[in-house]
């Protein structure tokens, strides 16, 4: 089960203003995978951009399905809400 925080009311309209139908295609996901930079470090999930780029043909469709399902069910994995942030001092 997924517990999302109650969002602050920003939209004036009712149900039609929810972000449940964000249009994107399989090609959009592939384009974003193509744009990853191999020289960056892994994210909170431990997956390196290089691995994602090398496996993009195999993972594109499952990633698309996961994103679509998350939007349709208005449920986001807890892992997707975390990030590793490191300050860079000048």
How would you portray this structure in words?
It contains three helices and no strands. The protein has helices at 26-34, 49-54, 56-72. The longest helix is centred in the C-terminal third of the chain and has 17 residues, at 56-72. Helix 1 packs across helix 3. The model has no long low-confidence stretch (mean pLDDT 78). It has a domain at 21-79. It starts with 25 loop residues before the first helix and ends in an 18-residue tail after the last helix. The chain is an all-alpha fold and 90 residues long.
Tag the structure with descriptive keywords.
mainly alpha, 90 residues, globular
Structural class: mainly alpha
| Residue-averaged pLDDT | 78
Unreliable segments of 5+ consecutive residues: none
Radius of gyration from the alpha-carbon trace, in angstroms: 16 Å
N/C terminus separation? 43 Å
The SSE order reads: HHH
């Amino acid at each position: 089960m997924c517990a999302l925080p109650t969002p602050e009311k920003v939209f004036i309209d009712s149900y039609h203003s929810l972000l449940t139908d964000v249009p994107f295609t399989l090609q959009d996901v592939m384009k974003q995978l193509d744009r990853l930079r191999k020289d960056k470090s892994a994210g909170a999930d431990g997956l390196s951009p290089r691995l994602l780029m090398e496996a993009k043909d195999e993972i594109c469709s499952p990633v698309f399905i996961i994103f679509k399902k998350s939007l349709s069910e208005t449920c986001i994995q807890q892992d997707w809400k975390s990030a590793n942030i490191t300050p860079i001092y000048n």
